Amino acid sequence: MLLVVLAVQAVLSLRLVGADTAFADEATYLWAGHLEWAHWLHGAPVPPFPAYFSGAPVIYPPLGALADSVGGLAGARVLSLVLMLGATALLWGTAGRLFGRRAAFFAAALFAVLGPTLHLGAFATYDALALVLVAVAAWCVVRAAERGEGTGWMIAAGAALAVANAVAYSSALLDVVVVVLAWLSAVSLGGKVAARRCAVLLIVVIVLVTGGLLAGGSSYAAGVRQTTLARAAGLDSPLSVLTDAWSWTGLVLVLAVCGVVISWAGRHGRAQTWLLAVLAAAAVLGPLEQARLHTLASLNKHVGLGAWFAAIAAGYAVDRFLAAAPAGRAQAVACGACVAALVFPVTLGASQSWTFSTDWPNASSFIAILRPLADHGSGRLLVEDASIARYYLPAGSQWQRWSSTRNITLPSGASTGGPSSSAGVTGAGNAGVFAEFITHGYFSLIALNFADTTTLDHRLAGQLHHDPHYRTIAVVPYGTEVPPTGQGTYIIWRYEPQP
């Protein structure tokens, strides 16, 4: 049955692999991975990725770049699919050890067809790798449940959890869930054994994470602080964040809560009820954190990690419902009905995942026009959403040439405005600084699409229209028609000094 679940998940994710051109995050990480390989193999300089990446740039980006070298963007996305299939298999194993094979089937099936799960299976970012590593940690602590001290399993779990935290700093939010899972799955062996297991797990995580930060230096510490601990708040309402999260994982959360109620009402043991409650609560940790930050950014990726844990409790709830049916024909009919009912989450997940994977503009036409302009020259370029162009174009390897509307890259590779909380990561660059560089003809090409940094773009466009040295050479449709805004466009200016 596990193979059936994995086959359905694979088919539904594979249809998304070629749905759109690279998303900005995908382009950034894969481009960074190629630069990291050039740095390791040839000593080429690299940008200060640790200062503004929300995960260690030396782990997923090089791995994704290897897959990209073999199969392009599709290859990198298939790598994520393999990782997500691994996460589903680990969910099956974890739920099976806790509550039996029937619970494992429904837990894995519910998780496998969630919109966020299918999307991450065709999305070339660090999220799938972080999720499967957290899943490995959870599986290890459950696997050790009846093995005495279980020190080896705790060390393995701690190592997997530490690497997951390095891959994606935000995954640390779920560390407490794994620790509590270690405690509750071992409490039947005695409080001292459970405490020693948790202590070993925590010590391994703390030592490895601390060692990694010390080895990485101040730039990694700054990156953790800026992208995770002191992340700039957005403008989205907490209600919109929670509403979206509910629409994507609400079914699993409801079933998980039902599992808690069933265990409590059936007096199945305090430890089991608390375990189910913690698993269910994991589903809301990510949404609550993003609601606190007033941001919907990456929410459809971040809810998947908590949903992995909640699916275990959801599978338990379905299993208990079926167990309550009379044995024999009635139970078989009930089981068949529950399997048939999975058609609804499959349909919903397929629809949501397609939306997730196609809700950014297709960059094909823009890249086709920019390619000869960028690759056949050596001048500097200012491109909004520069990550897309840098990934697709050979000139992207010459990263010192590229600036975005968040930061200007100087010839030395240093930046004029960050990265900081106001420039380089989330905010637009300083308009006055950009105006000065444009006045002096610093950029050979400028391409703006008036989307991410709209106010700054309009100010720069006004200056460019009145600058006799810059000429509009192309207006490129970018994206799909969105009433009443219309179709987005990239306007490209070229610097042409007067003789």
Question: Which features does this protein show?
Answer:
mainly alpha; 5% strand; 19 helices; 499 residues; 5-stranded mixed sheet
3D architecture notes:
With 499 residues, the protein is mainly alpha-helical. 64% of the residues lie in helices and 5% in strands. The chain is built from 19 helices and five strands. It has helices spanning 2-14, 24-42, 60-99, 101-112, 115-120, 127-143, 151-167, 175-186, 191-216, 218-229, 238-265, 270-292, 299-323, 329-341, 343-357, 364-375, 386-392, 431-439, 454-466, and strands at 381-383, 402-403, 445-448, 470-477, 489-495. Helix 17 (386-392) links the parallel strand 1 and strand 2 (402-403). Helix 2 (24-42) crosses helix 3 (60-99), helix 7 (151-167) packs parallel to helix 9 and helix 12 (270-292) runs antiparallel to helix 13. It is elongated, with a radius of gyration of 25 Å. The relative contact order is 0.10. The model is unreliable at 418-425 and 481-486 (pLDDT under 50).
For the residues shown, what is the average pLDDT? 90
What shape does the CA trace take?
elongated
What is the H/E order? Answer: HHHHHHHHHHHHHHHHEHEHEHEE
How many helix segments?
A: 19
The rounded distance between the terminal residues' Cα atoms is 74 Å
Strand order of the largest sheet: 2-1-3-5-4
User: What amount of the residues lies in strands?
Assistant: under 5%
Largest sheet: 5 strands, mixed
What gyration radius follows from the Cα positions, in whole Å? 25 Å
Helix content: 55-70%
Poorly predicted runs of 5 or more residues = 418-425, 481-486
Protein structure class: mainly alpha
Number of strands: 5
